[in-house]
Specification:
The chain is α+β, with helices and mostly antiparallel strands. The protein folds into 2 domains: about 220 residues, Endonuclease III, domain 1 (Orthogonal Bundle); about 200 residues, Alpha-Beta Complex (Nucleoside Triphosphate Pyrophosphohydrolase), CATH 3.90.79. Helix content is about 45%, strand content about 15%. The protein contains 17 helices and 10 strands. The strands form 3 sheets. The protein has a 4-stranded mixed sheet with strand order 4-1-6-5, sandwiched between helices. Strands 3-2-10 form a 3-stranded antiparallel sheet, with no helix packed on it. A hairpin with a 3-residue loop joins β5 and β6. It is globular. The termini are far apart. The relative contact order is 0.10. GO terms for molecular function: 4 iron, 4 sulfur cluster binding; 8-oxo-7,8-dihydroguanine DNA N-glycosylase activity; adenine/guanine mispair binding; metal ion binding; oxidized purine DNA binding; purine-specific mismatch base pair DNA N-glycosylase activity.
Length: about 450
Amino acid sequence: MNLSSTVDTAASYFSRELLAWYRMSKRTLPWRQNREAYRVWVSEIMLQQTRVDTVIPYYERFMNRFPTLQALAEAPEPDVLKHWEGLGYYSRARNLQAGAREVMERYGGQVPDDKAAVSALKGVGPYTSGAIMSIAFNRPEPAVDGNVMRVLSRYYNRDEDIAKPSTRIGMEKLAASLIPEGAAGDFNQALMELGALVCTPRTPGCLTCPVMIHCAGRLAGRETELPIKAKAKPPKPQARLAAIIEGTGEHAGKVLIRQRPDSGLLASLWELPHVQLDEPAVKPRGRAAKLAAAAEPPVERQAEDAAELLQRLQAESGLRVVARRWHAAEEHTFSHLHWMMRVYVAELDTGASRAVWPAGLRQAGALPTEVAQQPAIIAAESAAPYSSAESSAPNATDEPDGYRWIGRNQMRDYAFPNLFGKILYDYWDATGVEEGGV
């Protein structure tokens, strides 16, 4: 048998056996109930960089709220973001809604059975267009993601770097050549399923693989070595300070949140007021380092942090925020950034005979009696206290533009990134405020 015949045999075997395996053992997933294009589209966008098990409850909640493309297109964006909350990568939700509105305007609310038209929709790249065209319309279009490139790299023992665009293009051509006639949707889903369940990144289950006999990577002993992928640049660590600003008077029991700008990272989502520090940040590695990073800082560091919060938030918003006590250390990784955040419970200084005193004076017992009896309000060491009389701070009952006072029961009305949602719910739990309170 010549090389060409061997390749043809391996290809036909792969397509036939993989398709049979999928049809016999495929998972029951909510987006597989039917092949309606809108349902396929939503699921594929959600599944980008997110595990199936994670997506299922979010998909069901999203589809219950926006059961049709028209419902999504006509919904207010904050409502869409709130129902996407927890999935991350919020630009996916914005692009999905923008694409839905395009379909309403251009195609009467029906996703077109046309690859060029689908590919032109906002947020729809080659993989998503291939998935929609093949699964919803059974068109012989490849849908190549990381799972698929891993499977094909191993099966054909290919050394190309899958991080390179040229490799993806080659993989798309290869995947297209393998699609059995009339079975594009099932075949593409079979490829994804194999990569997700069997041909996994670190420990491929070769003995249970339906196409193991002709897998060139396995035969060469390279199944754990492949695919080849250049290491991405690690996320840049950033040190940040955040304030849980507690309300008083009419806002007692509430905290102050703010909305991010309508473009850029986490656009339009709500968060706690926070600032980036100039200090170098190093992501902790190892159990001991992580425990140390999560521990309450020494009082000197807390004093420095309080001063930074006071000065930087006042410069940004005009609010004089004074730290009252340590809350927690939190961190969150984005594709390009790693936030390391120290969080304090704070209040607004309204200028009512209040000063933020150096921590060393309090420690030394050198504060006036009436000040020493107040809750701890600390600032960096200096020769004199930071006098609140120097500021024309807004009244504590005011809401600067883009800010809101909310209680726990209002959390459902605002979309928060995972990081700030976690901080706030931990805070409410620690203060004994249950769901429905305040």
